[in-house]
């Protein structure tokens, strides 16, 4: 019969959390594969069993379910078949990743989500596009296999080497070092058991992503456990100003230069925005600073499908160089000439 998790850690079934942690750290250091190079296969097997046992017993919920399993908490109908002599045999099941001695698999657990803040241009918000994103993941440290233990002993940082910590109502054993005052802290992960890696990803964004939206990439979060689905990656969107174009809500704002003649006489004028040419009808006698609107040509919200406008602020581009006397006379004749008062 396979050993129970309690037997694997060499503790009683009523062991406290501190006793479980102390036993785990002691055995993990003893059977770490890097310290048993002459018998590495056996060390790897025992080390894995120790990790699984601790993973189960350190969680109150998993420990409760596991205790129910090893204590034969099963139910049966009152009626018995005539040929079973009144005995009920617990069905055998294939050994599974829940750990040594367990006959019931834990439920699948979905992986955690990852959220990254990204800054995109107004053009990307308007048209969509591909962006490069650095996504941080915390993964199991390969140097210590997630134990946080290293090859050399050093004073515990949490209790300053005393083995005790002030719990408010009195001193209690330090859970970090198990009361030993010393730890075998891994230098690679600083005893955390995890290291941060950065994955570089290229992600295609649809148009219409504006401030405050979150874009989800399914399955790019952390891996699930026990056959569970992976979590998702969420991009928290922030739109930055791009060149001469700024964004307010779903409206695009920019300046539009027109010449003096067009401002005075009116007529069509073209404006280029993110590779698209829009033709705008300029009213006669348009003054500088006037706002011209292209209705429904702004950003289309990716979620609500609401559409904004393009708002163009008129800037009059005056002719450069000196005017001839005839040109001056013509303008004076058109606009009345003289000094404008009031």
From TrEMBL:
GO terms for biological process: DNA replication; protein refolding. GO terms for cellular component: cytoplasm. SMART domains: DnaJ. Residues 81-112 are annotated as: Disordered. Pfam families: DnaJ (PF00226), DnaJ_C (PF01556). The keyword Transcription regulation does not apply. InterPro entries: DnaJ_C, DnaJ_domain, HSP40/DnaJ_pept-bd, HSP_DnaJ_Cys-rich_dom, HSP_DnaJ_Cys-rich_dom_sf, J_dom_sf. GO terms for molecular function: heat shock protein binding; unfolded protein binding; zinc ion binding. Keywords: Chaperone, DNA replication, Metal-binding, Plasmid, Repeat, Stress response, Zinc, Zinc-finger. The keyword Zinc applies. Residues 4-70 form the J domain. It comes from the Bacteria. PANTHER family: DNAJ HOMOLOG 1, MITOCHONDRIAL-RELATED (PTHR43096:SF52). This is DnaJ chaperone protein.
């Amino acid at each position: 019969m396979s050993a129970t998790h309690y037997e694997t850690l060499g503790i009683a079934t009523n062991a406290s959390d501190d006793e479980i942690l102390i036993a785990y750290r002691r055995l993990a250091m003893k059977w770490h594969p890097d310290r048993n190079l002459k018998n590495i296969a056996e060390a790897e097997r025992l080390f894995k069993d120790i990790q699984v046992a601790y993973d189960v017993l350190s969680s109150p919920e998993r420990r409760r379910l596991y205790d129910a399993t090893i204590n034969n908490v099963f139910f049966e109908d009152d009626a018995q078949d005539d040929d079973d002599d009144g005995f009920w045999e617990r069905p055998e099941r294939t050994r599974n990743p829940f750990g040594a001695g367990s006959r019931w698999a834990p439920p699948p657990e979905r992986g955690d989500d990852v959220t990254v803040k990204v800054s995109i241009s107004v053009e990307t918000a308007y048209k969509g596009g591909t962006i490069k994103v650095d996504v941080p993941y915390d993964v199991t440290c390969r140097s210590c296999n997630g134990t946080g233990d290293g090859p050399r002993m050093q004073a515990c940082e949490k209790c300053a080497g005393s083995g005790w910590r002030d719990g408010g109502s009195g001193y209690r054993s330090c859970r970090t070092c198990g009361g030993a005052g010393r730890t075998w802290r891994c230098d690679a992960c600083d005893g955390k058991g995890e290291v941060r890696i950065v994955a570089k990803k290229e992600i295609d964004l649809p148009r219409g992503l504006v401030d405050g939206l979150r874009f989800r990439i399914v399955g790019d979060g952390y891996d699930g456990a026990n056959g569970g689905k992976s979590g998702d990656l969420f991009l928290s969107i922030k739109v930055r100003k791009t060149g001469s174009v700024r964004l307010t809500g779903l409206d695009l704002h920019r300046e539009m230069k027109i010449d003096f003649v067009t401002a005075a006489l009116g007529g069509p004028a073209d404006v280029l925005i993110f590779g698209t040419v829009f033709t705008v009808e300029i009213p006669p006698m348009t003054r500088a600073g006037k706002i011209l609107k292209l209705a429904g040509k702004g950003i289309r919200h990716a979620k609500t499908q609401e559409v904004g406008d393009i708002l163009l602020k008129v800037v009059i581009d005056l002719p450069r160089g000196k005017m001839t006397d005839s040109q001056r006379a013509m303008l004076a004749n058109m606009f009345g000439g003289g000094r404008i008062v009031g």
